[in-house]
Amino acid sequence: MSLLEEGRDVPLGRYTVVRRTLPNKARRTVGAWCFLDHHGPEDVTGKPGMRIPPHPHIGLQTVSWLLSGEVRHRDSLGSDQVIVPGQLNIMTSGRGIAHSENSPTDKPPLLHGLQLWVALPEAARHMPPAFQHIADLPTLSDSGVKVTVAVGTLEGQSSPADVHTELLGADVELSGATRIRVRPDFEHAAVVTEGTATINGVDLAPGSLLYLGDGLEQLALAGNARLFLLGGVPFEEELVMWWNFVGRTHEEIVEARDDWMAAAGRFGVVPGGEQPLPAPGMPSTRLKPRPRYRQGPA
Question: Per the annotation, where are the binding residues for Fe cation?
Answer without folding.
Answer: 55, 57, 99, 101
